[in-house]
Amino acid sequence: MKRAWPLPVLLLLCGSAGAAGLVRTGSTGAAVALLLVFLLLAAAHSPLVFPRPAGALEAERRSAADGRPVVYWRPGCTYCLRLRIRLGRDARRLHWVDIWRDPAGAAAVRAANQGDETVPTVVVAGRAHTNPDPAWVREQLTG
């Protein structure tokens, strides 16, 4: 199982090193801008942007009880980030499973996608949908 934090930490370290080099050359404004860009990249690739993930079995149990979709995702996935941002506050109403932290979630995604770990995979009423339109996902919350 892969960990979710190495990429964001690496981005912060690279941004800090680059900014330190720019400060030494006297380019303080450029250093601040570079550090800000790397900070935003690190935040976008971290698990902090997403609601607290549940395990696959717990998410499936909750989904069966309340009918809300389960979203399988992983940090660093631009399509997952797009879905999360486009859903806005509605994202908190879904059940999120980080496939890098949960082997059962990764197995569920592989089973739904012919062996590939393609995310986001959204499961609605037991049926998997790979990389669905965010507007469609929002409709599933109201229906």
UniProtKB/TrEMBL annotation:
It comes from the Bacteria. Keywords: Membrane, Signal, Transmembrane, Transmembrane helix. InterPro entries: Glutaredoxin, Grx-like_ET, Thioredoxin-like_sf. Residues 70-127 form the Glutaredoxin domain. Residues 1-19 form the signal peptide. GO terms for molecular function: electron transfer activity. GO terms for biological process: cell redox homeostasis. Pfam families: Glutaredoxin. The chain crosses the membrane at residues 29-50. This is Glutaredoxin domain-containing protein.
